[in-house]
Amino acid sequence: MEAKDLPLLVIGAGRGGTSILAACLDGHPRIVMRSEYRSAGLLMGDSFPIAATASLIDDRLTAFRAACDDEVLKHPGRVWGNKITTEQIGGLEEHNALNDARVDVVERFVGAMTGYRIVFILRHGASCVDSKVRRTGQPPVRAAIKWCYAARLFERLRAARALAFWCRYENLVSDPKRVLAELCDCLGLPYDAAMLSQTDNGDLLLPEYRHGRFLAEKATEIPSLSPELGALLRPWLERLGYA
């Protein structure tokens, strides 16, 4: 398989822009995207019983890879992709909670998904936390910790040179044509303007996420959080280049 035909994984924090980026990619005539296909069931184990704690991470990753590979084979001539969240990858950390011998979850994940190109999208932590709390009712501290994990995961993937491309949500919504053209160039595919018309994609975007346009104002409307949450996020915001 040529590099330009290799499958994709779009990864980012929950409420971090993975859905809109996946929808844009799905608008490309050469790409077919799925949303969180088997990721909660297999990576987090929601529908995958634990057969043996010592092999938990390998069992889940093997099953997830097999499920994705099966879907790739169903779309000959197309680039197949799956968008997943960092929280779902975080489900693999349960292996370390159940075993004395710790494993490097990021290293295991990257190794298991060799041949899949990873596209990561970053979003300001305050925006992710605020959105997650409002949409899901999740406790703010829990949402903040999950975003910090997403930031750490991004840093690890970038240091391991495991990313085919990464972008900021703020740049995607404020200048989508430029970001998507750069992404296509990195994937070895021609840019297609149809990618810009996916803000109402009914297959990949929930009704409340369909706005008929890119929400450019979201690039600058950063919510205020409590001082306690701000202190939790600030070190990672600074490391990721957010003022």
UniProtKB/TrEMBL annotation:
SUPFAM superfamilies: P-loop containing nucleoside triphosphate hydrolases. Keywords: Transferase. Gene3D superfamilies: P-loop containing nucleotide triphosphate hydrolases. GO terms for molecular function: transferase activity. This is Sulfotransferase family protein.
